[in-house]
Amino acid sequence: MKRTLLTGALTAALIAPLSLAATAEPAVAADDAYYADALGLTGEPLRDALHDIISTGTTTLTYSQVWDALKNTDQDPANVANVRLFYTGQSRDADLNGGDVGDWNREHVWAQSHGDFGTSPGPGTDIHHLRPTDVRVNSTRGNKDFDDGGSPVSIAPGNYTDADSWEPRDQDKGDVARMLFYMAVRYEGGDGFADLEVNDAVNNGGSPYMGRLSTLLEWHAEDPPDAFEERRNELIYDTYQHNRNPFIDHPEWADAIWG
């Protein structure tokens, strides 16, 4: 538990005994109760505890309900009638959702084919990894793994791609990593879906793996959670699925499991 440290000058000034108020323990962090069974753990015990926590008492959305959820979770702070598109940061009318050019649609950051879960309630509708994305950008990314390198994507400046991987713009790299870490812990094969795992490979095809793990860990460290991502996590917990992404709340847990 964190405590405020006194500076040398302040310590010298406090000759009289400290009051009970001054020495009281700080309030327990808001998420300590939620993560109580995981605190102090590392490695597989930590992963197992987090899986149990984020899989308990959850609500599952239908694929149709995802549309309205994303209009809220990914609302553009500068224009509440719009959503902020993943991979580009563009602001687009929230009602322009669909499959036509100029629309935004539901991007599965953990590609549906990597585990063959489609759009079934569960991993296929889990909004912790579903983001609003321009239709053409979604199609260009396809089901590629994530890694550094490739050629610039003309319709999504800052993104790069090659035959088997996608590098998102810098502002989205940490988000990608934390979404994939969440999916790998949330879906362990015990609920009728494949056991999803992050690995240190690309071109994973239809297997239930997404990579490249070493690159994802770098992105996670370089692009820590921001206010937009934290707000999104709170909304998913409070309003929709009633579970959280642990790697937004406790970024240090990624290294504790995979580092």
Task: Give the topology, please.
Elements: H1 8-13, H2 20-23, H3 43-54, H4 63-73, E1 75-76, E2 79-84, E3 91-93, E4 104-108, E5 130-134, H5 135-141, E6 145-146, E7 151-152, E8 160-161, E9 165-167, H6 170-186, E10 197-198, E11 209-210, H7 213-222, H8 227-240, H9 246-249, H10 252-258
Parallel strand pairs: 6-9, 10-11
Antiparallel strand pairs: 1-2, 2-3, 4-5, 7-8, 8-9
Helix pairs in contact: 3-10, 6-7
Task: Summarize the structure in words.
With 259 residues, this protein is of the alpha+beta class. It has one domain. The chain is built from 10 helices and 11 strands. The chain has helices spanning 8-13, 20-23, 43-54, 63-73, 135-141, 170-186, 213-222, 227-240, 246-249, 252-258, and strands at 75-76, 79-84, 91-93, 104-108, 130-134, 145-146, 151-152, 160-161, 165-167, 197-198, 209-210. The strands form 4 sheets. It has a 4-stranded mixed β-sheet with strand order 6-9-8-7, with no helix packed on it. It has a 3-stranded antiparallel β-sheet with strand order 1-2-3. A two-stranded antiparallel ribbon has the order 4-5. A hairpin with a 7-residue loop joins β7 and β8 (160-161). α3 (43-54) packs across α10 (252-258) and α6 (170-186) packs across α7. The chain is globular and about 45 Å long. The two termini are 23 Å apart. Mean pLDDT is 90; it is low at 1-28.
